[in-house]
Specification:
By secondary structure, the protein is an alpha+beta fold. The protein is 14% helix and 29% strand.
Amino acid sequence: MSLPQQPQLDHKAGQPAQPTPDATPGSGPPAPQFRSAETLVPPAPAEPTGWRSWSRDILFSVAVSLFIILFLYQPVRVEGTSMLPRLQDQDRLFINKFAYRFESIHRGDVVVFLYPGDHTKSYIKRVIALPGDTVRIDHGEVYVNDRPIREPYVPNRFRDERSESERIIPTGDFWVMGDHRNISSDSRDFGPVPRALIYGKAAFVYWPMDQSGVVH
């Protein structure tokens, strides 16, 4: 048989003490409560989506393109018509400044070099013969190593009747000619061009737009 529980008095106020909300008769102090562990993990940063991701990709592409253009290529302007029909007067194009650091100069390459008679001027011509080759011209027909070469880049209306006696291209030099043979000043006039004066390879016409494209 149990006795009825007597209310406890608050010794300061003389009033019955109020029971703790979670306390039950006969129980000890309430157990501390903890949050579950997963609520303590900081949220992962949100991945960029939509226009932010698109803008980031565009900016990265622009930065890479600028690096390539500024450090690998050089914009130049064509002055004159000696390389018609492929290159016209006032065309803008990029030249590759590092191409010949990693590869050899080949016949048919369009190269930019310092004019042998005045290093303040630059010329752009096509490579016709390499060091050690023999070259001669017979009424406009070019022979390299005793064989006539195909020159689809020279239209018939741009050919001339000039002749040159056979010569051997010295080591380290290159025989260059313009595609517009009627008016071009080239190796027929100033001789072979030393390798040290060649500083770039014509790569791409970017202006005007209707002439844009890779230089062959």
